[in-house]
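Progress against Task 2.4 (sequence-to-structure conversion) is shown through the following example record, which the project officer requested during the mid-term review.
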Amino acid sequence: MNWEWVPGRNCGEFQLGVALASNTYTEPVVRLPPSCDGADWVNYRVGNEEARVRVENGIIVGVECVRSLLLHGQEIIGLQQAELGDVLGRSPEVAQRWDDGSARLEVPELGLTLWLESGVVESATVEAAITRPDPDDLPPVDPTPSRPDPG
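Structure tokens generated for the chain above:
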């Protein structure tokens, strides 16, 4: 499955802010047991653990990617922490760091949380952005057209 991410809009086939049941998906989407007592969300596994989709009141609110997350064709999973600023157009904030060398980084304006082990991105969670970023602040889009210009 293609896990191309458009910040605040979608991650692959999954549109943020849209009902999960409103689409048909390439890979099977399987409801998982609650992750904790009193959870007001539901998690779904996509395919063979490629990703998990978090749903609240039937609406997709987040996608956790563990195998792939692409931004303008650039793979984020597997990047070194030092490479993130170039790919994202900004440096993520360190939200938490643990003694074992793992860390949680965030870019709230993009709705992105990164989970690192030994300085390498192991997984990422994307959500609708907390604040809508100014389009000039988003990472650059590859100007190469995907199809020839007819004119």
